[in-house]
What does this fold into?
Amino acid sequence: MAAQMVDIEAQSSSPSSIFKDVHSPVTLKFHEVVYTIKVKKQGWMKKIKKKQDQSSMEKQILKGITGVAPPAAEKTTLLAALGGRLGGKLNGTITYNGKTFSSIMKRYTGFVTQDDVLYPHLTVTETLIFTALLRLPKTLTTREKIVHAEAVIDQLGLMRCKNVIIGGPSLRGVSGGERKRVSIGQEMLVNPSLLFLDEPTSGLDSTTAQRIVSILWELARGGRSIVMTIHQPSSRLFYMFRKVLLLSEGNSLFFGKGSEVMDYFHGIGFSPSVAMNPSDFLLDLANGISSDDWSHANRNAVKQKLALAYKSNLAENLKAQVAEVDDRINDAFDNNNLERWSTTWLQQATILLRRGVKERRHDFFSTLKIGQTVAVAFLCSLLWWQSDTTHLQDQAGLLFFYSGFWGFFPLFQAIFTFPQERQILCKERSSGMYKLSSYFISRTIGDLPMELALPTLFCIITYWTAGLKPEFLSFLYALLTLLFSVLVSQGFGLAIGALVMDQKSATILGSVIMLSFTLAGGYYVQHVPSFISWIKFVSISQHTYKLLIGTQYEHGQTYKCGNRTCLVEDFPAIKSVGLDGHVVSVVALAIMLVLYRVIAYVALMRIGVPEKMVFSKCFFMIDTVLFLGYVVSKDSLVVNDANVGAIQNWPQPFSITNIHNFHATSWHHLPTVSKAPNSIGPRILAATFVEIKHNLTTAPRILPNFSLPFELHYDASKTGIVEDVLRQAGHPIAYFNEKPLF
It folds into this structure.
């Protein structure tokens, strides 16, 4: 890997040279790519208990897409599938120099998303330098990586704004075109052989879009494959594309040179009525609009005609071209010694920590948060000014306020952590920039200064002014207890945010749970009903309050209650939690401290990782498969013998309960009964029951024969006995409704 890296110092003197050479050209080939997703649909199945059923149906997104992408040619195609970032069911063949996508191939691949997913408070230079430190190999020194990032900034024309922050929707920063170039620069830092871009010109004016595409042309001349999607480009941009793939509802309509697209459609009878941008014309065709006819029926006919024309005129020739293209496998992609990660775990954690601190420097010790903490602290000081044990209720209230206020405050701070960074985490994990563990550790550590400094300031102000136990050790124990509680609440917020990943929903859920913890904390309610008393064992407020009470009071301590002296431990707000069991509370908080963070970490594992095949649910090298109770093979479709006996020996039902049980398995075969009764009483007709059992043990026709007529049987009587069913040759093909048997 080190031998293949170009000389950084040489690039510094001649920045454009970083785009001249590439690790190894990549030939991208895709053949009959079909992508299917599962769409969950809610439905009611009025069966035995009329319970809700979750049924899943599949929707085909890509329908047999074929193409080839040799180096140095711009391609428009299906980025998520081709870039190895697609979950779901993907069929067909996608190869990179003759090999499937792998973690090694990911190191040579760049992917620019449609939305510019960048940290808004980092400058252009900081963004690219941190990316270089994370993605460039550890064989390079830090200085060499920085020089490389500066060379990319120069080449992409970002020198003028190098010290300007990226910005966002509510934060002024660089322009849209500059932001897009920063996104491209992040991927160019690794000198990729294959670069994917998802609509890089969307939202940009024509001049800026022209500059972006010109940069991509320069990259392509260096031997890279550039694959991009684009929506309605200008005429200038369109004729810059060497290869164009036109899609409509997952079907290919054209694949070839951009300069030949108008001639092709003219040859099959589709020409614009007036002079127009080729991309506008193609967009109309993709939507089924031909000439000035906007009718819906004609749109479907146009789409079908274009798809058939592609299959008859282009598809076979394209498949032959794909088969003839040399994969040109390079040894660089066969390097089994190439490490998965460019940097070590410690380097990743350190760099991510530095980046996080710089990104959130505007938030650390912000005037608003410090002012809020100081204001609440002074208010508490005024309300609890120099209280003593004669006002035990007041002191207990202050200690419980400690646990409540510093339970909610870090909770809401932490809840927003991962939802706000979800897109960035997804993008960077998909690129293989770092391990999730290094990100998680650096992110949680980076928030500690603010999370711990503010409660420390609050405790220093209120502890001494409120007249709590005037001993340094007691103050220290109270402070450590408060900070311990803050860390647990922070972990709880991280877990809620990582699980829900929606700021509004997570805030509502977190506030409800924390409020439950507070109410069961032992101060507001001393006699919690037994059926809900378990909440106090998992209540952060209860354990914190108990430990804080222990820092101030001890067994045998007294206070004046009217004209007599009472034991502190008998005071209701203290007796409910007791002065013993401090070790149990410490252990409970320690368990929650770890458990909540483990939950957050596990929840984050699903982010940025495409769905993988579950091999435990797959079968290989088998002759038959069991599907919906039938044994399916390449030669036949027969009923599973294991189920036949149970059906054949089922006794004839004579009660509503028995009818229910049998109906659970036979309801969908009832329309095949030749003489179904008009009504069903407690006794089902014997002949009907026998015929139902026969149909249950006889394989139905699964696939329709389009050379034979179809019959639609409709339940006009609405008795609920016969369903609306599509038949062919007496066999049911599809059902359109579900009704109860009686």
